[in-house]
Amino acid sequence: MLTRLIPSSKEALPVVGLGTWQTFDVLTPSAKEPLKDVLKTMHQYGGTLIDSSPMYGRSEGVVGELTAGSDLENQFFYATKVWTQGREAGIQQMNESFRLMRRKTMDLMQIHNLTDWKTHIKTLKDWKAAGKIRYIGITHYTDSMHGELEQILSSVPIDFVQFNYSIVSRNAEKRLLPAAAEHGVATLINRPLGEGGLFAKVRGKNLPDWVKEYGIESWGQFFLKFLLSHAAVTCVIPGTSKPDHMADNAKAGIGPLPDKATREKMAALVASF
Question: What's the topology of domain 14-272?
Answer without folding.
Answer: TIM Barrel (3.20.20)
